[in-house]
Amino acid sequence: MNDMLKPEVAAGRRWTVAEIEALFALPFNDLIFQAQTVHRAHFDPNEVQVSTLLSIKTGGCSEDCGYCSQSKRHHTAVEQENLLELETVLDKAKAAKEKGATRFCMGAAWRGPKQKDLKPVLDMITAVRALGLETCVTLGMLKEGQAEQLREAGLDYYNHNLDTAPEYYGEVVTTHTYQDRLDTLDEVRQAGIKVCSGGIVGMGESRTHRAALIAQLANLNPPPESVPINMLVQVKGTPMQDAAALDPLEFVRTVAVARITMPQSLVRLSAGREQMAAPLQALCFLAGANSVFYGDKLLTAANPSAESDQELFDRLGMRVMGA
Asked: Which one is catalytic: 65, 210, 253, 284?
């Protein structure tokens, strides 16, 4: 192992796209060994953090993200729903906690929240946190001052994915820019909220694009505390419904590279797990993934049940973090 890739050197450095491409190109066994070495230097390799994600406002989004079932520009089976009532959200949060979740994430299909929309979400954050759960929201792009309001309500994490590389972003979204995404992440950091940010693979991007996405995330100062790695879920009616499936081992490589370049982050298996067999998920955990979403649904996409996840954890001898 050369100096560039030692665990103690990997933390806190800036990565070039070429260096990350070199990681991707390693023999698979060497890459996994390296990722596992880094993982063990920073985490218990047999623990997994568990979050639950709830859509608190579904559909009708004005943006044109090519993968998204909730854009009103696409013709999908998702029906628009208004913001959920506080009691409904609390019931879902209590159920999530009973099943072992330690973080409760709430997502709203907005370009960004208007001030009138933000107030009930602030109440949800405060109430969910009072249950003893960490809180996370994904509400789109934030205006000046909104991150501070979220922090004052008790928000722990804000999710805002970069999705893909800057060079490929125009193939995925045209209604806002990459810089818009980075600006929101900066607002969140300046407010003292932890960052949850990752991407989606399998959208027709190249390996170089995947390397460039990882570089963007790893070079944030500091890197995100949580890094969701999503496999594209092909939704009928979206522009990406016929995207070519990504090689599963390339997905594992992406997880491993994320672990090596962001050694202290939680790397989360997110969308697409419903289509992943147990051996593939096990490889992802071996590659350094240590977080998942519990629950039957991720916003609008299917997800493995909490019971099937627990069965998998038992088979692998893994424990839920904080349980």
From this structure: 65
- Whether 61 is catalytic is yes
CA angle 122, 123, 128 (to 5 degrees): 100
Question: Looking at 14, 73, 103, 196, which residue is catalytic?
Answer: 196
Q: What is the pLDDT of residues 59-68, one digit of tens each?
A: 667 777 767 7
Catalytic member of 14, 111, 129, 136 = 136
Task: State pLDDT tens for residues 107-128.
Answer: 988 878 898 999 999 999 999 9
Look up tokens 């989360």; give the residue.
268
Query: Which residue out of 103, 253, 259, 268 is catalytically annotated?
Result: 268
Known catalytic membership, residue 268: yes
Kindly report the pTM of this predicted structure. Answer: 0.90
Tokens representing residue 293 in the block: 């979403």
Q: Residue written as tokens 């089976």? A: 77
196 noted as active-site residue: yes
The DSSP string of 39-67 is HHHHS-TTEEEEEEEEEEE-S-B----TT
Task: Count the alpha carbons within 13 Å of 132 in the hemisphere toward its beta carbon.
Answer: 9
In the residue annotation, 105 being an active-site residue is answered as yes
Closest to 97 measured CA to CA, from 294, 268, 311 = 294
d(CA 62, CA 73): 7
* Whether the Cβ atoms of residue 184 and residue 124 lie closer than 8 Å to each other: no
Sequence length of the chain is: 323
The answer for residues whose C-beta is within 8 angstroms of residue 219's C-beta and 6 or more apart is: 14, 15
